[in-house]
Amino acid sequence: MQKIVTYLWFDGRVEEALEFYTSLLPDSRVLSITNYSEVGPGSTDEIMFATFELAGQRFTIVNGNSFFEPNAAMSLCINCEDQAEIDRLWDIMTTNGGSASVAGWLTDRFGVSWQITSPRLQDMLASDDAAAVVRVTEAFMTMQKMDIAELERAFRGE
User: Fold this and answer.
1) Domain residue extents for the chain
2) Which of 9, 44, 73, 123 has the highest Cβ tally under 10 A?
3) pLDDT value of position 40
4) CATH number of 6-63
5) For 57-80, how does the pLDDT look when each residue is reduced to its tens digit (9 = 90+)?
6) One-letter-per-residue 3-state SS of the chain
7) pTM for this one?
8) So what's the architecture of 75-156 in CATH?
């Protein structure tokens, strides 16, 4: 069992969110669904909790109410293998109500904040070459979606 599980608070649309999230990455699936009981506060045909895995990482959706809303103070980060994965996820997550932000950040149609990035960016930022780090930082701070080739050019000083 995973020791720490992220809970995502929703106000409805849980079934849509489960379908969307588990379609994003391999090794993703719904694990369990618990409906409200007769005591409520939702109806017995409404999901109260749903546990799912996204790329093997466990999450739980709580179908609460509008008391809490997601914000960018907490985000989920996907470390993509290549530009094709960045492009695919970015396109899927910024359509149908999602929105792009800056430096690889976006908000999906449910209001959840994500970072769609590459481990290569972290490698470049950890370089001993201070000038290269500055160039890469300047480059990614002007991007919405990460562009690995552009970051590599900035790193090399081209």
Assistant:
1) 6-63, 75-156
2) 9
3) 81
4) 3.30.720.100
5) 999 999 987 778 888 889 999 999
6) CCCCCEEEEECCCHHHHHHHHHCCCCCCEEEEEEECCCCCCCCCCCEEEEEEEECCEEEEEEECCCCCCCCCCCEEEEECCCHHHHHHHHHHHHCCCCEECCCCEEECCCCCEEEEECHHHHHHHCCCCHHHHHHHHHHHHCCCCCCHHHHHHHHHCC
7) 0.91
8) Roll (3.10)
